């Protein structure tokens, strides 16, 4: 309870749109995979980066060897509470279930099975999570981007656009959010003076770069073989000229190795 409340208070001070500078590491959807989350945090500190941004979806769909997403969200909230100016947790559509229901949502059942009174405490934490970030000149969000300028953390329209939207070339259809094409993406990136977009949300696009500017990454063993494959992180070493300046690494057999994304027009 204390860790959840401390991390909630830390995130309450953060705006809906974070502005970060320096060497930034980015992690995709972990979906209950505490093993991978711990490996990513370990690498973050070993590599000496200034900040790490997780792109949302920390709960639900936990790997079978863990069986619940509670250990993962507890670990990440604990790390947030301990390293408030280094670790940032963006909201995914699964954390936004309180605003727009998502399926499956095992997390509510998991919490109410072990400690029912804590569910609302977690929801308060999720409500304070930022929606997006600008890491130097790279835009980060769970799924997409807003189509209006001023947004609040719990603006339902903004939550839908930012956490539910997908690349137009993706085969996924969700019935929420919107499909963005190359022109829509370029217009948004130009408006905020960004050169690229890193997102999670869609495992079919894992490890794939769309429109030469939009990279999708997942960071969960459960989805390791989806899309172009891999348990991935991205590394932004200052301002970039193009998406090719972003380094991607894959966690495999306990080691981090360089990764080659697949480009799709």
Q: Concise description?
A:
This protein is an alpha/beta fold. It has helices spanning 2-12, 34-47, 70-82, 106-114, 119-127, 156-164, 182-192, and strands at 17-20, 23-27, 51-54, 87-89, 132-135, 138-141, 166-167, 179-180, 196-199, 208-210, 214-216, 232-237, 247-252, 255-258, 262-264.
Please provide a written account of the structure:
This protein has 265 residues and is of the alpha/beta class. The chain has a single domain, classed as Purple Acid Phosphatase, chain A, domain 2, CATH 3.60.21.10. Helix content is 29%, strand content 22%. Strands 1-5-6-9-11-10-15 form a seven-stranded mixed sheet, covered by helices on one side. It has a six-stranded mixed sheet with strand order 4-3-2-12-13-14, covered by helices on one side. The model has no long low-confidence stretch (mean pLDDT 97).
Beta-strand percentage range: 15-25%
Largest sheet: 7 strands, mixed
Which structural class do the helices and strands define? alpha/beta
User: Overall 3D geometry?
Assistant: globular
Order of helices and strands: HEEHEHEHHEEHEEHEEEEEEE
Structurally, the number of domains stands at 1
How many extended strands? 15
The CATH topology is given as Purple Acid Phosphatase, chain A, domain 2
Overall pLDDT metric: 97
Note the gap between the termini.
46 Å
Rg computed from alpha carbons, rounded to a whole number of angstroms: 17 Å
Write the CATH homologous superfamily: Metallo-dependent phosphatases
